Predict the 3D structure of the following.
Amino acid sequence: MEPALTSLLRERVTVSGSISFFEFMEHCLYHPEFGYYSSGRKVVGREGDFYTSVSTGSLFGRLLADEFYQVWLDLGKPAEWRIVEQGANRGELAADLLRRLREVDEAAWRACQYVLVEPHPALRAIQRQTLAGENIRQISTDELAEQSIRGVFFSNELADALPVQCVKFSGGEWRELRVSWDADGEKFTWREMPCDQLLAWRIAEWKIPAGEGYCAEISPRLGDWAASVARCLAEGIFLTIDYGGLAEELYTPNRREGTLRAYRRHRQMADVLAAPGEQDLTAHVNFSRLIASGGQGGLRLREYTDQRRYLTRLGQRRFFQEMERSPSAKLLREFQTLTHPASMGVVFKALTLTV
């Protein structure tokens, strides 16, 4: 029997002949019932499809807590402040972070309201269970625009999962790569189509270099997301950690096939169109767009670096001294995994913008 999400998408393709990959990816990841993320099933860690900095252990959250605690100090120790996380998945990072914050300074922990931006009911229920007893509040994406944040807004591996459009320079012009249905092969397949005016404008705005056969992805919501954060951040920092790079790092000759990838059971899959809703879909983040969009909203660039340098700087606050006083082989292994160039240390970038 054909999976429900495959049937739904096939019907949409059949009606119009093709759909944008943006629409396909949005359904695959965020369909209310069958979406890869929105369904609430476990997708991270040993039992899932991929590892993240959070799944290595508690150290990642502990280091971020030290950074956010410094923000609270810089704000003058306000009686109320917020840490707002979008894309919290099951809430494990929030739990690690809040435990560390309370350990460092209970006054900062008591003053903090932790806000989770989460529109999906299944994940909201899991987060409430994970964070039972903590001072948390859950809001939808739409409610984000109504917030006034004094403190921190952050995300970890969120922007890479924003739906993208796919384009290819073919026959001397840019073409959109859309999703069609191969009735003979009974599978989804790519179909080249002329770009509409809006997509052509986005290609020019993103300054993607033309070259025969060159493929790339455009994330239409990326700039709007950064702008929405800029509007609600009254005082403090906007931090996002993800894999990607600046435009000049992404659009190079060795990335002719683009950065769109599918992962399942800890392996990169050959066909990104296969098994809708059952594999992760992701594309590298264009940090140049985040910096530019945040800047238009009044945010200033404070730091852009790789995860190795970022976490090493954070470790100088307390972690290294604590390790000298009480060495922990487990925490040392976690730090090495998070910062090793062959693991997560270089491919992941940390961007901090400030008001």
About this structure: DSSP finds 13 helices and 16 strands in the chain.
